[in-house]
Automatic annotation (TrEMBL):
Repeat in keyword set: no
Membrane-spanning ranges: 100-121
Domain Cell envelope-related transcriptional attenuator, residue spans: 181-346
Protein name, per record: LCP family protein
Organism lineage string: Bacteria, Bacillati, Actinomycetota, Actinomycetes, Pseudonocardiales
InterPro entries, per database record: LytR/CpsA/Psr_CW_biosynth (IPR050922), LytR_CpsA_psr (IPR004474)
Compositional bias per record (Polar residues), positions renumbered to this chain: 435-444
Similarity comment: Belongs to the LytR/CpsA/Psr (LCP) family.
Disordered: annotated segments: 66-91, 428-453
Gene3D superfamilies in UniProt: LCP protein
Keyword Transferase among record annotations: no
Assigned keywords, A-Z: Membrane, Transmembrane, Transmembrane helix
Amino acid sequence: MTDELEPIDDSTKVRRKIDHTLARFSAAHDELAAEEAKRKARLERLAARPQQLLEQTRTKLQRVVAPMKSAGPDEPTRAVGKPQTRLQEKKQRKVERSVLAGRISVIVIAVLVFLGTGAAWGTKTWFNSKFNQIAALDENSADIAPGQTGDENFLIAGSDTRAGATAEENVGTASEVEGARSDTVMLAHVPADRKRAVVISFPRDLEISRPACQRFDATANTYSDQVVDAATKVKLNTAYAVGGPRCLTKWVQQLTGLKINHFVGIDFGGFKDMVDAVGGVTVNVDKPIKDTVLGMVVSQTGPVPISGDQALSFVRARHVIGDPTSDYGRIKRQQEFIGALLTKVMSHGVLTNPGQLTDFVNAFAKATFGDNIGVDQLLTLAQSMKGLDASKVSFMTVPTTGEANSRGNEVLMDTKAKELFQALIDNAPLPGTTPAPTNTSAQAAGTPAKTDQ
C-alpha cells in the first residue's frame, strides 16, 4: 500500500492507481456478498412458506375435527368410583390410543388431501384460483335489515345455459336457446349460533317486480354500463338473464331483507362432471320418472344410483308425466339430489381418495363461479358448523299459492313470505315448524320439507 504523504513520482502514481482499483474491487465484492446474503434469506423464507401454509391449514382443520371435550357415544368412558384391574386399565389405554391415533390420522389425511394430491394441487392459492370470481354482492344495500351479525347467507343459482350441451342431453344448443336464466334459485341460511340451517327454493316462474339492473353478458360474465329499466309482473328467471348475479342478489335482498354474503353460480351443463367424479349418487324414486321432453329419466324405483347425464335430466325435468306441479316436483328432486351429492362428497371414501377428490374439485371449479367463495370462508364455516345435527337442516319452498296465474307465473304469498324471512332474520322458530307432510302442496305453502340428510 502507498503512503499518501510520500513524494509523488511516476511509480507512486502507478501504485496509488493499483490501490484505488483494489479498493473498488473490495467494495464491489462486499456489495455482492451482501446481495447474495439477502437472496439466500429470501429463498429460505420462500422455502418455509409452504410449511407455514401447511401448519396454518392443519390448525384450522384440527379445530374442525377436534375431539369433543366429553366422550362421544362411541368413545370409551372411565367408570367413576370403580377400581379397574390392570388388565382393564391396559385395555382402556389401548383403546384410547387407538381413538387418538384415528383422530390424528383423520387430521393428517384431511390436510394432505386438502393441500396436495401428490404434487397436483398444493396450496389454497391454487384452490382459490380454480374458481371463477364474478361480482354479485352488495352487502351495504339499504334493503338489508339491521342486525344479522354472524349470519351466513348463500344465494345459489343454477344457470340453464346451453353452452357445451350435447345432443344426447336433449336440451337444445346455445344457438337454439341463447343467453342464460336462473333455472334454479336457492337461498341457504345459517344463523350465527349455527344451530340450524334452512334452504329455501324459489320457483323459476315466480312472478316478481324486477329492479333496475346493469346489463349482464352471460358469455363473457361481465357487466356493461347499460342499465335495464325495472319491470313488473315478470318471471324470476329473467332477473338473472337481464342483470346476472348482481340483479338476482338485489331482488332477493329486496324481498327478504337478508344480507347475502356469498353467491354460488352453477352451470348444470358442467355439473354432471361433478357427479361422475364421485362415482354417481343414489336417489330414492317412488315411481318411474318420464319427461315429455327429456324422455325416460329413471325407470327403476327405490334407491337408484344415477350418473352424470342421468343426474342432469333428474334435476332438469319439469314436464314429468303424472306430476301436475311442474316446478314444485322438480324443486323437490333438486333438493333431494343436492343432499345426496353433498352426502357423497363428504363421505369417507371421497375425502380419502386423492384422485377422486381432485377430479371433483376440478369439475366443481369448471362448473361454478361466485363471489366470496374460497378456502378460508369454507373452512371458517365448516369449523363453526361442526356441531350441527343433520336433522336440523330444513328444505323449504318459498310460500306461493301453488297455482299459476293467467300469465303462467307462480304467485307469491306476501304475508307468509314476510313471516318466514323475518323469522330467519330474528333467528326465531319458523312458521309451521310442526311435522309436515312431504306433498308438494305443503311445500308450496312454505312448510319445511323433510330432509333425508
